[in-house]
Amino acid sequence: MPITLKSPRQIELLRASGQLVRETFELLRDHVRPGVTTAELDAIAEEFIRSRGAEPVYKGYVPPSRRGWSKIPPFPGSICVSINDVICHGIPSKKDRLRQGDIIGIDIGLRLNGWIGDACETFAVGEVDDQTQHLLTTARNCLELGIAQAHAGKTLGDIGAAIQHHAETNGFSVVREYTGHGLGRNLHEEPTILHYGEPGTGRKLIAGMVFTIEPMINAGKADTRLERDGWTVRTADGKRSAQFEHTLAISQDGPILLTG
């Protein structure tokens, strides 16, 4: 599939969307505490996004038809909220109340002036144990190491290999089924970004590419389990998972973080 390269002007529009995503995270950060429900976080995010003239891109989203996805109902929330062993696509709920020691991945996607912003961050709810903190630190470092490989002339395999090596060196695993992706006016565009692989393989990176890097790092095995709601993805072994995501653009001078 062809990749739609973005012009400098389009990248600036994507940066504006990405910065609104970042502002939404900063707002939510103060609300991630014991006793808060994921539905409350969802409402806070949606109100803020709409107040800035944007719209939550996940709300009502219907994924592309592919194996296992064709009968999924539209996503009901404005953000994805993934607690503890939920890897991704957790649905906000009045029943899911945060507890001391939890971790919660919050994935925010929005459209501003026709352009998409998309990022994810995993928050600790109060103090967490040492193993969980190690998972969070490793997952964040995986993202940073992937971004460090995102230079014109490198390959997608260089990104995936750096992430995989760091995760596995620290005793964790990388989810295979769920990937990063290109974006622009659409939430999902080419290329697909794997978070594992071999150096020097895959598509070569060129200026004008815009995509997300969003490794999902599991404390146990990489195997996943899809819930009956058609959205919520959990670790198959019940161990915790953490995710961090940025959207970036490739330039001749290195990666440009659009959601940083």
UniProtKB/TrEMBL annotation:
Q: What CDD domains is this protein classified in? A: MetAP1 (cd01086)
Statement: the UniProt record of this protein carries the keyword Hydrolase: yes
Q: Which domain of life is it from?
A: Bacteria
- Domain Peptidase M24 intervals: 12-251
Provide the transmembrane region boundaries: none
* Binding residues annotated for substrate, in chain numbering: H89, H188
Q: Which cofactor does it need?
A: Co(2+); Zn(2+); Mn(2+); Fe(2+)
Its top-level enzyme class, in one word, is hydrolase
Q: Which SUPFAM superfamilies match?
A: Creatinase/aminopeptidase
InterPro entries according to UniProt: Creatinase/aminopeptidase-like, Pept_M24, Pept_M24_MAP, Pept_M24A_MAP1
Reaction(s) catalysed by this chain, per the record, are: Release of N-terminal amino acids, preferentially methionine, from peptides and arylamides
Q: Which residues bind a divalent metal cation 2?
A: D118, H181, E214, E245
Q: Can you quote the record's cofactor note?
A: Binds 2 divalent metal cations per subunit. Has a high-affinity and a low affinity metal-binding site. The true nature of the physiological cofactor is under debate. The enzyme is active with cobalt, zinc, manganese or divalent iron ions. Most likely, methionine aminopeptidases function as mononuclear Fe(2+)-metalloproteases under physiological conditions, and the catalytically relevant metal-binding site has been assigned to the histidine-containing high-affinity site.
Return the PROSITE patterns for the record.
MAP_1
This protein's UniProt keywords:
Aminopeptidase, Hydrolase, Metal-binding, Protease
Q: Which GO terms describe its molecular function?
A: initiator methionyl aminopeptidase activity; metal ion binding; metalloaminopeptidase activity
Record GO cellular component, one term: cytosol
What EC number is given for this enzyme?
A: 3.4.11.18
The Gene Ontology biological process terms listed for this entry are: proteolysis
Does the keyword section mention Glycoprotein?
Answer: no
Where do the annotations place a divalent metal cation 1 binding? D107, D118, E245
Annotated family: Belongs to the peptidase M24A family. Methionine aminopeptidase type 1 subfamily.
Q: What does this protein do?
A: Removes the N-terminal methionine from nascent proteins. The N-terminal methionine is often cleaved when the second residue in the primary sequence is small and uncharged (Met-Ala-, Cys, Gly, Pro, Ser, Thr, or Val). Requires deformylation of the N(alpha)-formylated initiator methionine before it can be hydrolyzed.
Q: How does it assemble?
A: Monomer.
The name under which this protein is listed is: Methionine aminopeptidase
Please report the organism this UniProt entry assigns to the protein.
Answer: Candidatus Viridilinea mediisalina
The lineage is: Bacteria, Bacillati, Chloroflexota, Chloroflexia, Chloroflexales
Encoding gene per record? map
